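Example 3.2
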Amino acid sequence: MPFKISIIFTTYNSPVWLKKVLWGFDQQTDMNFEIVIADDGSTMETQKVIANFQANSPIPIKHIWQEDDGFQKCRILNKAIVASNGEYIIVTDGDCIPRRDFIAVHRERAEPGYFLSGGYLKLPLQLSRDISQQDIINGACFSSEWLIQKGFKKSHKLWKLTRSTFLANLLNHLTPTRRTWNGHNASCFKSDMIKINGFDERMQYGGQDCEFGSRLKNLGLKAKQIRYSAICVHLDHSKSYENAVSWKRNNGIRSRTIKNKIIKTSAGIKEAGLI
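Structure, written as tokens:
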């Protein structure tokens, strides 16, 4: 049997966006995966959405919840990593709708000694709101032509939606975008996440994903670019949790990680008592 994959993504009081993301995973061509929803303190409305999908979706769905204590994404991600059953973990976000081949591409490109670095196409707010369940089922929201008709500005950004394997591979090779761990679209083997002690729970919003990726690189992993191959569209929303203090603290942690070639965070899975 091929290895099982765990999808992990965070959510926080965004039940409408959450539905759209789960509709996307219901349409995958590769169904050998589970979903672990890392819930950073949402209310009962989110719980009801998840319970409905648990009852009706063919995909196993786990709901890992923690009390609302501000932006604590790293803390809930560590809990989700430990709760996951897959050998391989894909991390995305609760505002990113995956194209139907999203899982299949990650599985095809997965390789020991590597992590995969993907991207997304960010949509404007009104278009994010307008996407319906049918638009996800029939794949319309991953069509450049459809998005342009809906008011998306025509630009090179739409190349991310190419369905040509040849063009996608070429663009993956040519893009100047760095091969970082991107919290909306990245993956590696669970064992590697455990080796680096998961995410650094001292970090709130700002660069926490890149810091995680830096430690994977310090462990010896290399990065593969799949920015134009594993496709998801990003639904717009406000970021009330973003602040300069958090960014400054996180940048300091990441700088020390890189300078000192740190592999294991001192504030991760082990320190939280999860293993």
